Amino acid sequence: MIDAGDGEKLERWGDVVLQRPDPQAIWPHGAWPKPDALYHRSSSGGGYWQKNRAHPAAWEIQYPGVVKNLTFRIEPTGFKHTGLFPEQAPNWDFCGTAISQALAAGRQSRILNLFAYTGAATVACAAAGAAEVVHLDASKGMNARARENLALSGLEGSLVRFFTDDAQKFVEREERRGRRYDGIIMDRPAYGRGPSGELWKLEDALYGLVERSAALLSDQPLFFLINSYTTGLAPTVLADILNLVVKPAHGGRTEAEELGLPATGRDLILPCGCTGRWQP
Question: Residue 171 in contact with residue 186, Cβ under 8 Å?
Answer without folding.
Answer: no
